[in-house]
Amino acid sequence: MCTPIRSNPTSTLSLITTRMLEKQPLRQRNTRKTYVFLIFSSLFALSIYSIVQAWVPFWILGPKIDQQSEPPSTHSASSGRSTKFQLKHVFHHGTGRYNRVHRRLDITPEFLSTHENTLEELTEAIYAQGNEHVDSNSADSVMSQVGISRAFGGQNPWSAELEIRSSERPARLRRLKERHTPGFLDSYLRYAIEVKGDPKKLDGIGLEWEPEEDVLLPDIEDKDSVVALALISSNAYVRLPLSDDEKKKSDWIDVGDPWDVDEEHPDINFGWLEDGLRGHVFVSNDSKTVVIGIKGTSGAGLPGGGSDETGGNDKINDNLLFSCCCARVGYMWTTVCDCYEKTYTCNQDCLEKELLRQDRYYQATLELYRNVTKLYPPETTDIWVTGHSLGGALASLLGRTYGLPAVAFESPGEMLATKRLHLPQAPGLPRHMEHIWHFGNTADPIFMGVCNGASSSCSVAGYAMETACHTGKICVYDVVTDLGWHVNLLNHRIHTVIDDIILKYNETAKCVDQPPCRDCFNWRFVSKDDTEPDEPKLPHPLKPKPSSSSVAKPTSTSSSKPTETDKPKRCLERTWYGWCKKWEGEE
């Protein structure tokens, strides 16, 4: 008798479990791959989204713009050292017939307390002047307005403290070893002009350059620091809180050569009574860093410009530094030097000597710096220079001469003046190690080099601003694209640049190398004692160009009389439409 087989529940369950487990690994592997793929895909998508969100607005719109202008914040993302600066000295260097006069006014606590009431009245007047209507079509009217920036926060510009942050890392810089030796640079510059900047002859001097050393720089990527430097440039325009009688008193200290009273100079009234160059010196609280702010151009001969402004010589030096040939724009113009020869032809040697004259602003700038170094030795002090407009160009020339960090605001192109002066430059020095920065905006015709032409505001006022090329790096705010501005001379004013441009942007303008640029391309510069031929004449645009095809010359001599084969043939028979069917002599 067969006994039926009973199934064991335990064994059946184990069998099912075993079969399920045999199929499970494949399913688990597929599921695991799917999860891993989804995780990595999500992470990749998030990373792409973050990059696009961060960079696309910058590429399309540029730096972000604040909706409202706000005073500089006291905090910055940079990790450099932050230091407060205050005005300590005012230097004035005479030019023209007073070029030997050089004086210094110390801004001490006693000076501030003595003129406290006058300073308050002057500050109110300056802030009020910034709101006055200005004729945008008059260059003199624009340049004579002293208005002060709102970034001062209502402070007295003579006692305000400005905070500047240094760069996180010191920069490497090479400078002339004998740059502070008395008379060395002057003799070099004179020799460079005598040899017309011949590289072979200048290399024969054997200039000694110091090895690269660490130099402290201002942080030009920090908006607050850029605003502070611009305020120092603006401060150089502020008038002294003194009456004409007080200016003659003993507050001024002579730091130049002894001044002898004679018939031509019956007194030594100084200060703002005569034309000259002005520099305001700001010193850090620890006296380890000095910033020199060089005054720019003041309007000449206008109500509001003031008899104590330096406008007369400012215009002369503007036209000498930034014109192609002594401001010879047309036959109606009065030139500032006698280097013009004929139409679009200028004497190069004459131009170079004019720039180096003792009564011009470049020499005055060198003397100003040398007197500052007597108070603050460059061996133990970091010295920076800044300025606006003409002052910015002079700051750039001074920085290149002595190897100083220079920050210029809305300066005209100074590359032409740099070449004419043959300023020394370390061999093989790349542009990023020059440490010269030019801040400007696309709506400023002077900075962009377009304030020229017979109908321009500059030409009408007698300014020949014909240069556009800068040295070092340019940091340009594209306000025409970002803010919809139009090109206008009002956008050249320093307080407009600070309040309506720099403070409007969340970030400072990106600094890039100057693109390839050439000024005065249609001029011919000659030298009377050149041993080499001058540059070829430029072709006349209205005359046809000569043919570039060559004509084959005969290899053998032949008679000039025509032969029988040279005589033209006569047509004997033509078709109805004029085609010759039979020529004379043909069978």
TrEMBL record:
Protein location: Endosome, Multivesicular body membrane; Prevacuolar compartment membrane
> What CDD domains is this protein classified in?
Lipase_3
Where in the sequence does UniProt note compositional bias of the Low complexity kind? 545-562
Top-rank EC class of the record's enzyme: hydrolase
- UniProt KW Lipid metabolism keyword: yes
Under the cellular component aspect of Gene Ontology, which terms does the record hold?
A: multivesicular body membrane; vacuolar lumen
* Reaction equations catalysed: a triacylglycerol + H2O = a diacylglycerol + a fatty acid + H(+)
**What GO MF terms are annotated?**
phospholipase activity; triacylglycerol lipase activity
Concerning InterPro entries, the annotation shows: AB_hydrolase_fold (IPR029058), ATG15_Lipase (IPR050805), Fungal_lipase-type (IPR002921)
- Region annotation Disordered: residue ranges? 530-568
Residues crossing the lipid bilayer are 35-61
How is it placed in the membrane, per its record?
A: Single-pass type II membrane protein
Can the keyword Transmembrane be found in this entry's annotation?
Answer: yes
Q: Which family does it belong to?
A: Belongs to the AB hydrolase superfamily. Lipase family.
Tell me how this protein assembles.
Binds to both phosphatidylinositol (PI) and phosphatidylinositol 3,5-bisphosphate (PIP2).
What this protein is reported to do is described as: Lipase which is essential for lysis of subvacuolar cytoplasm to vacuole targeted bodies and intravacuolar autophagic bodies. Involved in the lysis of intravacuolar multivesicular body (MVB) vesicles. The intravacuolar membrane disintegration by ATG15 is critical to life span extension.
Q: What is this protein called?
A: Putative lipase ATG15
Q: Give the source species.
A: Candidozyma auris (Yeast)
